[in-house]
Automatic annotation (TrEMBL):
InterPro entries: Bulb-type_lectin_dom (IPR001480), Bulb-type_lectin_dom_sf (IPR036426), G-type_lectin_kinases/EP1-like (IPR051343). Keywords: Membrane, Signal, Transmembrane, Transmembrane helix. It holds the Pfam family B_lectin. Residues 1-18 form the signal peptide. Residues 40-157 form the Bulb-type lectin domain. It comes from the Eukaryota. This is Bulb-type lectin domain-containing protein. SUPFAM superfamilies: alpha-D-mannose-specific plant lectins. The chain crosses the membrane at residues 409-435. GO terms for biological process: response to other organism.
Amino acid sequence: MALKSLHLLLHLLFLANGFCNSDLHFPQKITISIPPAYDPNLHGRAFVLASGKKHLPSFRAGLSLEAIANNLYSCSLAVFLGGLKVWSSDHFSPFSPSKSCVLELTSNGVLQVHDDRGLVGWQTTTFSQQVQRLLLEKTGNLVLMDAKNYTKWQSFDYPTDTMLRGQQLNAPFSLTCLNYSFEVLHDMLRISLNWRGQRYSYWELVPERNISFARLGSMGLKLFDSNSRKVALITGSHSGKQSNRLLAMRRDGNLGLYYYSAVTREFQASYQASNKPCELPLPCGNYGICTFSNSCSCVPLVSKYDDPDGFCGNGNAAAKMEELDGVDTVLSSSSLRLINVSKEECASSCMDECSCVAARHSGDGIWRECLHYGLVGGVREVERGESGHSYWVKVLKGNEKSSGFEKTVVIIVGVFDGLVLCSIAGAILYCFIFFRKGFISEQEFSEN
């Protein structure tokens, strides 16, 4: 009964958008109870602020309660554009309250989220700054203001995975989603996969001049130098008069510009950094190969990849390097880069480092490059011999029919669309379920 009552309360608060104000004066305290029974599908919203309905969908802000792992709930202050969460206080650190979750604008000017015992999960650094009210602007910016309407804190200064139209940020800054990040640096733009302390980039843009700040407008993301001169523009290609509302990192590692379609009543992409699944870093997961037909295959000869200790410890002594033919990776490694070494020396250097599980060698003659990887990710099928590179993976000895360090493994991929081909019979079912699930769970960006 208590769980149903909470659902009803949050549903009523969701519908009561017309009764929300655009600002909240101190002292204020809004409390919602935590369900005694865990509901993995719970997405509760208690809206307390609204920006108006001039441009639909409109912005709303309030407490958000969502089910997370380990039978817990995460509670946060969040901003929504329609049904899409565009900012939240728990983006980097989820807060799991015990019995209730409280949003409070205290008399000393601090905005905080805490539980019934006073444990603070998130708060602003505005103590004794004469904060008078919390305002939700029409741009979706949450602002703490004093009596003279000076800004003391604003959510636009703390981006999460989304940048909103009208938002301006100084370089460097980043948008993050899960293990993915879009970085606007002074000298470049970069999208990366962050994996076990290492960064692997898979999209870059280097402008002619340094970047001082970025602003998202209706046309797209504009980049400016220190003299406010436009350096570059990332713009969408959609037709019609709809303007872009946001720039967001998706859960699959793609970056996109989105506009709201009045026809479909959904956010549609006007621009995507990667237009094909195989251009993404993990479309088939770790140790998967994205084929020409956008299906998934497993890397042959691998049975060690599900070991949490990898090849470190005693595992490296039982390993060897194998070259894979007809594949390449979209990832560029920053962990280790060797210059002017042969492909055999490149593979050997990976063999000597237990944390290295793959290596890529490119170039010949005067310029040759070797990159090390801590994962077998971003691997895709390419025409054999087209790129002048070699890609090596570390495997257990004894997994091949014939031995030899320089033996080339010919990968058979793309024969049947959707068919997973693995050389290890015991891994076939695992790969099929895991990789096909990856395609389903990381679909197009939506409001849900």
